[in-house]
## 1
Amino acid sequence: MRIIMFSFLLVISSISNAEIEPSIGKSYERYSVIAEAWFANQKCSFLSNEMTAEFERNVALINIALANEFKNPTKQLAIQNSAEAITGSEKYSGCPTSVRDFIVTSLMDARDWSATIRKAGLKKEYWLNGLKPREIQFLCSNPNILNTFSGNNKNCSLKLGELFDKCATQVDNVKIPAVLTSKQEAEKYGGIIGECIAAYHFGGEYLSLFNQAQNAFAK
């Protein structure tokens, strides 16, 4: 499995461009080491399933944060390809113990780096950009919604995309903080946006109940 270049699978993890290493070169160097270790673990499977899942979350978080900060996806993709290629070299043949130590050290570094990113918080704009495609895909996979578009996923995505923008920026009773500081906050406001989209799509009683809930929440 490759590092997910534009994935916001970690959607609801907090991301920021504020706490990345000040030197671009140092950041990419650090990233390349972590990426190599990630691919090495895919090859050698030294980490437990739980630790592998943690590593994947943290690598993806770093990946997205770097993309937000330096806006050079070609460079990041080249680093990923290079890291993957290195794990096919003689150095990794037979998965020696030294590789395990390298992976564990890199796991800890990724943990520290991602914790710094999370601490800084996630700017609303970055979060919304990542949430939008996933939220639309999720809602359009709901038969109750998709059936209102006669099963046409393209039309569903277009309409719900418009409603996502409306709910994120134009609905008075949906107030998203400028910076999200925790997974819990991201989950909370992600849920509100999803409910808002459904409410405005179906209208009527659905919209009335949504507005009542949001107005009560605001008090």
Note: The radius of gyration is 20 Å.
## 2
Amino acid sequence: MSDRRTTRPPQKVWPARFMRVDWGVKTQLFDHLIRQQGYRVRYQRNVACPCVTWPQDGGTGQPELDCASCRGVGRLYDKSREVETKAVVVGVSQGKRVFQAEGQMDLGSVQATFLSDVRVDYWDRCNFPDILIPVQEVHKRAGLGALTLNFEAVEVLDAYTRDQTTEAQVRLVEGTDFTVNLTTGVITLLATAKTYADMRVAFRYNGYPWWYVKDLPNAYRGRMVKFGYPAERWVNMPTRTILQRGDLMGRNP
């Protein structure tokens, strides 16, 4: 009887030079996967608003709450420099919602990994133009006039308020009680809504919320590589981020 151990083919030992990882090729494979499987993303970089008083100048590092440019957020976004890229999105967490006087805050977060050529920073923002997401907001305005939705809206589904006398729920009808400009997100209350104009108005609409970069677990994801290149160099890897939906950030711009 033959010994099976002697009939097995010998293990092939690869030279050490073939055991090295070409991180440049690995980055290309990551990017290829993101382009194939990722979501389309509209991405905007941020810059600090000049209204922020920096500590080195004796300030507190806080923005001016009545700033007309950033609306008290402290960050500016230039829509004209918006870029379209792709990202793989995982780990969606709905979390809980905390209602505030001027809207709601979604405590859920999303993990997104961007292409390696996108340099992400804190407070940058993005949205996903192929995915309509239902959004709810509560606004308070004194008297008739305009109010602005926080996000880009495609259609307003519902609008409700309360009767000042009976506190009964009242449904506002588009075209009769209010009008909507979907380009600017401005809702104008009409004369027929005068009875309820001093009350809070709740809206539900389908739109494209902005997601803000909350954390960068891999801010400097990459490594120094020399194999396969004339000189040692840094190779960026796709950046993993934690995004937070910015319901309380307001419409900026």
Note: Confidence is low (pLDDT under 50) at residues 14-21, 94-106.
